[in-house]
Amino acid sequence: MTDLYQSQRAMRNMRRAAMQRGVIAILDVGTSKIACLVLRFDGPERFREDGLGSMAGQSSFRVIGAATTRSRGVRFGEIDAMQETERAIRTAVQAAQKMANVRVDHVIACLSGARPRSYGLAGDIEIAAEQVSEQDVARVLAACDVPDYGAEREVLHAQPVNFALDHRSGLADPRGQNGHRLACDMHLLTVETTALQNLLYCIKRCDLELAGLASSAYVAGISSLVEDEQELGAACIDMGGGATGLSIFIKKHMIYADAVRMGGDHVTSDIAKGLQVPMATAERIKTFYGGVIATGMDDREMIEIGGDSGDWERDRRKVSRAELIGIMRPRVEEILEEVRARLDAAGFDSLPSQQIVLTGGASQIPGLDGLAARILGQNVRLGRPLRVQGLPQAATGAAFASSVGLCLFAAHPQDEWWDFEIPAERYPARSIKRAVKWFRDNW
Q1: Coiled coil located at which positions (predicted)?
Q2: CATH code of the domain covering residue 133
Q3: Fewer C-beta within 10 Å: the chain N or C terminus?
Q4: CA dist., res. 370 & res. 272, Å (int)
């Protein structure tokens, strides 16, 4: 934890330095595609004549380069074959650099798999002076009891989600306010160490410096949920190729995140096996003719499978659209049932507003919102990411929710544990620094 705390602090400093230089890249390493966007940071007044900025009133960056390439060597949102992934990342980054006509050294990345796990922590302290200082916020964050989440896991996000000063709760930022007792609720998100290290190592092999890390479910929620949904309580379901991310927001903070190790690629795989066609053909059929709700017409609508096996009879096969829907629907239902189970476990039912927003590439299957409304609840809508300055038209769809969210995360990151000077003696019990201090004091 100590090492991670220090490295996250170093990443934050690197991000600030990159923003002062004016250029930073974001990298979305997914199972089906790798997207790289190059951002240029300037003052908001530079683009005043150019319509809305990243978010109304928060314009400070513009996308000057964008590239996507087919992902290789990634399964379930985790790196599976290092060299192939490295090659794919290099391809995407070089293409984006070429379009932007600048060289990029720093990237902010996100990862979707790695079995995320959420914890809610609480802590409180007495305030020495009358006013709450930066140091008091650091002390109350350090006072939160960190659970023993296991040696094989690392903290990816540690965000204070609520502060209470004396009897007043729901404070966003208590600094500068008067009071005697400060309490804090914090959301801690941990992921598997190996998946994280593989990504860090892969980015290092591409000669890039990492200036930040985020959970893909979190950044997809930032870009796809509108302000009211983030305030009143909503869940964002980011349906990717190999994993389906899930994040719950309330009061503009993420309070829960999880991932289901199934996505659009599994639907494609089912079509490939069911119709006995290659994966590329299955993906084409899914994109052009797929769906999950059958109508009376579908028995008569025939789809030419095509192929180049050399067997004339086999290459001229046709299937009805009803048959295709029969293959796709069970898998999509399975993914949504799994998501429903995770939402129930998180206590989503107790939120004031139970809006569910579907985003990600796999959410574009026709009829999915209707099926999701039956399985997850009535308030379901399809979400598209916010409009960002300079983003190419091709990158404005639901498949780019994480990429756009990463841009917003890069420009306006929320305060996290590592933004404050935590006193050394308040590190979690397992930390090395604490052990060293104990030895120094007692021997």
Answers
A1: none
A2: 3.30.1490.110
A3: C
A4: 25
